[in-house]
Amino acid sequence: MKEIEVELVVEDCTAQLYFDAIYSADAAMRSFHAKVNGDSAARVGPWSDEGLRSVQFVMPMNVPAMLKKFIGMENVPVVETQKVEWLDAGHKAFRVVSEPQLNFPGANKFTTSGHLEVSSSLTGNTCQLKATIRCSAAMPWPMQATVEGLMATEATTSIRIFLDFCRDYYAAWRAEQRAQPERPAPAPAGARPPRATAPAAAAAAAAGDEFYDAVEEAEEGAGGEEGEEAVVPYQPPRLEDIIVDCLRQIQSSSSETAATLRSLEELIRNMDDNMQVLRDKMVGRRAPPPPRTAAAAGAAAQPSSHAAKAGQRSTAAAAASSSWLGYLAAASLICSAGTLVYVRYRLGTGGGGGGGGGGGGN
Predict the structure, then answer these.
(1) Taking residues 128-156, what's their average pLDDT?
(2) Which H or E element spans position 84?
(3) Would you tell me the crossing angle of helices 27-35 and 141-179 to the nearest 10 degrees?
(4) Which domain holds residue 6?
(5) Is residue 20 part of a domain?
(6) How far apart, in whole angstroms, are the C-alpha atoms of residue 223 and residue 101?
(7) Where is the composition biased (Low complexity) (predicted)?
(8) Distance (Å, rounded) from C-alpha 140 to C-alpha 325?
(9) How far apart are CA 359 and CA 362, in angstroms?
(10) Residue 96's closest CA among 42, 166, 27?
(11) CATH number where 77 lies
(12) Cβ proximity of 229 and 41 under 8 Å
């Protein structure tokens, strides 16, 4: 249950004057419902001896769309029971308890009640107004707090509008009371009325008897009877129609959700494309890495190049060794040839000396 309080101060006012202007007659309530609720046919009953009266009016439903679908109507007929209670013998404070009863299917699940306390200030120049409203909704727990919050918000707005209207209405009523001339005090019992002067009597005789008030009241009464409209009984919507309407709203919301998801998917796809383009541009600024095939070929070619270099080194070493062997062979051939020449030379020299010795012997 939600409880709210609203306070207001009315200037140049007392509790008795406020009651006389707002609650003693029906003019203020009928004017309020005609101006605020748009119901010019509101009915306000007289006060009973117990301090009770009934107010019947039609109120527009200023609630969210889902609650309007649940209620099934734009304007709701209301029967409000008011009870007045004076809080002291000096008529310096009173309380008005209000219990409205709404007429629509399931209205018993929503309860709103409140009371207004009006008290005169100690100085007697101002009047203090304090309104207390209680709202409750008999609904499942997850929705109860939300619905009661909406009811409290609507009730706060409504009571502020009502109190502001009553303040302005009282100010206008008070101004009219001050503008009226003071009536003479009533004559004491048994006293004779004053005699009219001769000019006044002549004027009264010339004017004759005229009853304007009676004629006007008769015309107003006839107009009121003609202006009344027949009351059409309220027919609540069928449950099947409400269910079909809710299913249509769910289908419409599902279609909108699917369209939104498709649009979101398209945006994500475009974002991926843009990110890929940006990634390509950022990669293009750096030196492109060698392809994997070339790296593999280079890696495979490195052992072969080492082998080729080793072969070249071995070939060069072999060539160097073969050149040294050639040099040695040439040197050995030269030495052999020199030795052979020397041997032959020695043999030739020895043969010549032997022959000469033989000849000297002969």
Answers:
(1) 84
(2) strand 75-86
(3) 120
(4) 2-179
(5) yes
(6) 30
(7) 188-203, 293-308
(8) 114
(9) 5
(10) 166
(11) 3.30.530.20
(12) yes
Cα separation, 63 vs 74, in Å, equals 10
User: Radius of gyration of the chain from Cα atoms?
Assistant: 62
Q: What is the pLDDT of residues 47-99, one digit of tens each?
A: 999 999 999 999 887 665 656 666 666 788 899 999 999 998 888 999 999 99
In a domain, 316, yes or no: no
Q: What are phi and psi of 135, to 5 degrees?
A: -125, 135
Residue 250 has pLDDT above 90, yes or no: no
Distances (CA, A) of 199 to 184, 206, 207, 209: 22, 11, 12, 17
Any bridge partners for residue 111, and if so which? 136
Supply 343's token pair: 């041997």
Tokens 């008529």 belong to residue: 91
Nearest to 128 by CA among 11, 21, 29: 11
- Where residue 51 falls (left for φ over 0; alpha for ψ -120 to 50; beta otherwise) is left
Task: Tell me how many helices (H) and strands (E) the chain has.
Answer: 8, 7
* pLDDT band (50, 70, 90) for residue 243: confident
Phi, psi of 120 (to 5 degrees): -80, 145
162, amino acid identity: F
Number of CB atoms found within 10 A of residue 4's CB: 16
For residue 67, how many other CB atoms are within 10 A of its CB?
Answer: 14
Residue 135 has pLDDT above 90, yes or no: no
| Residue 309 pLDDT | 55
Q: 158 in a domain, yes or no? A: yes
Query: Higher confidence at residue 1 or residue 201?
Result: 1
Question: If you average pLDDT over residues 169-196, what whole number do you get?
Answer: 71
Q: Tell me: the pLDDT tens digits for 264-307?
A: 888 888 888 888 888 888 876 655 566 655 444 454 445 455 54
Q: If we measure between CA atoms, which residue out of 155, 157, 139 comes closest to residue 147?
A: 139
Query: What are 132's strand-pairing partners?
Result: 5, 115
Give the number of domains in the chain. Answer: 1
Measured CA to CA in angstroms, residue 235 lies from 7, 32, 245 at distances of 39, 27, 18
311 inside domain? no
* Structure-derived torsion over alpha carbons of residues 300, 302, 307, 311, reported in degrees to the nearest 10: 130
